[in-house]
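Methods — Computational structure assignment.
A single polypeptide chain was analysed. Its primary sequence is given first, followed by the predicted tertiary structure written as structure tokens.
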Amino acid sequence: MEYTVAKSMPHLTAIQARVLGTLMEKARTVPDSYPLTLNSLLLGCNQKSSRFPSMELTEADVYTALTAMKSIANEAQQPLIRELSGSRSTRFEHNFQRAVGVPEQSAVILGLLMLRGPQTAGELRINTERWYKFSDISSVEGFLDELQDRSIEKGGALVQKLPLAPGAREQRWAHLLCGPIDLTLLATENEAQELAANEGSVIHQRISALEQEVAHLRSIVENLSKELGLSQL
């Protein structure tokens, strides 16, 4: 299906991208609860799993982002976000594919990139399984190439292949919905993420060592209690 695309569609803010990506995720993973209330959307934006970077948004942050995106539309007046007024509470849904002019597979890839940050084609194939099942990595790469080579007439490139990171075996991809990528800032964020992961690993190793030491001491105490004829606690 062909969509009319606004050539001058503005770049999203990081918060808008998180809100939009969350709506796209929940539409596919929890359809019975979709469209989302403001509170459900807030919880989805701030969840700790499957999000990078993590955020602590307020209702005001989310509502401001929604309001702004309701006014972002393509040349056919298809907005990014729709507000639905019901008998109980107002709910929100995305209109990403029609507003941006991309097929389902491309929308899935962009949604994951907005929520989880830069990823390799292999990571995208695994992470998109609950959204859409790609047949293989080549299929993912094909849609990534299309998004990167997207013509100016259709709105321009929506993803970028990043330089190979030190120690990495594959290049990652990042979305361009928030504008050009600051590679220096991205490198800093990656270092912080790796540091946090390393610290977590060190803490886990220390806990394991302490558990082993406690078990060894408990065994010594039990043997001494037997030798002395003392009752064990």
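Note: The longest helix spans residues 183-228.
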